[in-house]
Amino acid sequence: MARSKTSPPADALRRRAEDILKERRKLKLEGVVGDLECVVVNVEPGSLDEVTAWLLCATGYDLALSFEDRRGQTCVLALDGSADLLVRCRQADNPFLGLDGPLSRRRPNTRLETYVFGVTDLERFVRTQRRRGVEFLLDETARHDSFLFNQTRPSQKEKRAELLHKLLPGMAEDVVILPHFYTDYGYNCVIGAGSYLNHGAYLMDCAKITIGQHCFIGPGCGMYTAIHPILPQERNSGMELCKPITLGDNVWLGGDVTILPGVTIGSNTVIGAGSVVVKDIPSGVVAVGNPCKVVRSITEEDSIYFHKD
After folding, report:
1. What is the mean pLDDT of residues 276-285?
2. How many CB atoms lie within 10 A of CB 39?
3. CB distance 44 to 89 below 8 Å
4. In a 3-state reduction of DSSP, which class is residue 31?
5. Using CA atoms, how far apart are residues 144 and 119, in angstroms rounded to an integer?
6. CA distances from 53 to 58, 90, 240, 293 (A)
7. Beta bridge partners of 196
8. For 176-191, what is each residue's pLDDT tens digit?
9. If you write DSSP's letter for every residue of 244-289 in order, what string do you get?
């Protein structure tokens, strides 16, 4: 299908952007707030594919990537020199249901949710907005590198790589980490080449966390090195211990796996989704459960070529 030269959605965005620029000059925020980085389009369940296809035809954008996390599904549309379009379908608790907007009149169940702009002077921006009565989710400006990484656009690959290497100096090349990603320090993490960390990973690196080469870390996985005292009076005093966590090469953790302090998982092992690993797991096995236990060894019959279905 040929793409149209004129775009009603793009015209609506352009008019809205002009209004925002006028408001920015009025508030003396010119030079503080940067370019439009991203536009989030909210769609209702069942409409994601249809709306994405319509926007691709109507705007001249290309589909850059798509992903799914706990909150919903997202398609990222990109065009060189322009802000990204994120078409977002929330799974639940969608506060935008029933709201109309410029897109709603042309495409039912679709609305503009958020405009995301870059900021060159965050403190000045926050002060100005607070004088206007704007409330923020955080009392203080968040500047942790993991926070900055989580705010990048999906198409900002170079920026993401720069932030990750700053946050994780022990990260090898060819590592993929998807936001949101969290770590306490970063410098206590060692991640081997070719490893992949899916959305929502949390590395509590009070002690060293070592992830080998070519490891697959499923969404929502947590590795916790901190140990709080069992006795409440000791716990309330702030006492704390920590023990390292080690994953060998070619380890696959299913979604929502929890690894507790001091655990070592051997190379070539698979941990089933939702498992809680409280003790060491040897190499070359499948283990699952809470607490996680070895189910069987991995053999050549586990090859995907043996699967008929």
Report:
1. 97
2. 21
3. yes
4. coil
5. 16
6. 9, 18, 53, 46
7. 176, 216
8. 988 888 898 888 999 9
9. -EEE-TT-EE-TT-EE-TT-EE-TT-EE-TT-EE-S-B-SSEEEET
3-class SS of residue 296: strand
CB 262 within 8 A of CB 242: no
Sequence-separated (6 or more) residues with CB below 8 Å from residue 158: none
Write down the catalytic residue from 165, 180, 214, 228: 228
Across 27-36, 141-150, 257-266, least confident range: 141-150
Which pLDDT score, from 0 to 100, does residue 164 have? 86
pLDDT 10s digits, 61-103: 999 888 776 667 888 898 888 888 888 887 665 555 555 555 5
Q: Is 180 a catalytic residue?
A: no
- Dump the DSSP string for 119-138: ES-HHHHHHHHHHTT---S-
Residue type, 75: C
